Amino acid sequence: MEKRVIHVAHSPDSDDAFMFYPLVAQKIDTKGLEFKHILKDIESLNRDAKEGKWEVSAVSFHAYPYIADKYVVLPSGGSVGDGYGPIVVSKEPLDTLKGKRIAIPGKWTTAYLTLKLFEPDFTPVEYYFEDILPAVVSGEVDAGLVIHEGQLTYKDFGLKKFVDLGEWWKEKYNLPLPLGCNVVRRDLGKELIDLVAQLMKESITYALTHKEEAMEYARKFARGLEQDPERSERFVSMYVNERTVDYGKDGREAVYLLLRLGKERGIIKAEIPEKIFSDEI
Question: What is the pTM of this model?
Fold first, then answer.
């Protein structure tokens, strides 16, 4: 009998690769499903999700209200920063971000949403996320909003931190900052959605309990950190941990707060669903 193919779309970074490795490498029993990787940057994934392109996808929480008619959020697989997150960096020290030209990795990213909550008055300049640090170094922009491995490598470029948005969020709301999530398409039906949710949790748990094996695979995706095992492992552990297995009560509270604030400030134009997670529906 031919296996049902489930396309899993995610960013080509080491934390996503780490958590999806057991599924793709069939290290766990996939119950008759075959999972295939689709690798794209997060802003492309956000756009694809608006079309309902992939059965399972990583997306930004900022984008979720716009795709809620097509997807639900899986209870596992979230990227949550507990006291850390996207960082605004600059070449020279800045007193304020007000009125500055800031390179961003996309207007649908949660990093952008959080920056708008922190400072509403700036000029966003969209860049592919890997081009943000060079743009700041060259002086094309006043500052850059860095995500992924850039959170650990910006000092290598001689850049200075203005604010860590995850740290700011924690101080202001005493909650972790939910950045990304894995979503599953509603038209798969409840039985298949529940199975995908179960396998996602098993995949993350396997990766965390077979860390060396999963890290060996994930390092291939550690952009800028391929030859730096210590920092590549640190980055993965920042975004694949117990909160990735389960958001926790405060993690879910933070999701709803982030989206509500985005709506109240006029940043998010779509309606916020009352129920977001697949196990709530």
Answer: 0.94
